[in-house]
Amino acid sequence: MNPEPNFLDVKIMGREYRVACTPEERPALLSAVDMVDGKMREVAQRTKSTIAERVAVMAALHIAHEHLSGVAAGTAGEGVDTSDTRRRIEAMGARIDTVLAPQQRLDI
User: Fold this and answer.
1) Other beta carbons less than 10 A from residue 69's beta carbon
2) DSSP state of 13
3) Of 53, 40, 62, 43, nearest in space to 107 by CA
């Protein structure tokens, strides 16, 4: 029998989100929220961007890169060509900038 999901209200970069989770999942979810919030704040500060969508995508790419390259687990470079991954992430970031540039002009 599946436990009935509970809801947890969390805050990421000052915005509130309601997430379904069981009591057993709560500690891991709170750790994930801390990681995502920290990475998004880091990206926002480094890029000076206030567009939440861009910051979220870049933070997700950084977290994925860290995971795939083993940085988060302390096994850096294990089976992954990090130079190719870094190049691909930078290319994705450039594409995101190109797509969001018109929106940035509207926000000003």
Assistant:
1) 19
2) T
3) 53
- Give the length of the chain: 108
Q: Are 43 and 60 in contact (CB under 8 A)?
A: no
pTM: predicted TM-score of the whole model, two decimal places: 0.61
Q: DSSP letter at 72?
A: T
- In this predicted structure, what is the pLDDT of residue 79? 53
Q: Is the backbone of residue 48 left (phi > 0), alpha (psi -120 to 50) or beta?
A: left
* Helix (H/G/I), strand (E/B), else coil: 37: helix
C-alpha closest to that of 52 among 17, 90, 8: 17
* Of 79, 78, 46, 48, the residue nearest 62 (C-alpha): 46
Residue type, 28: A
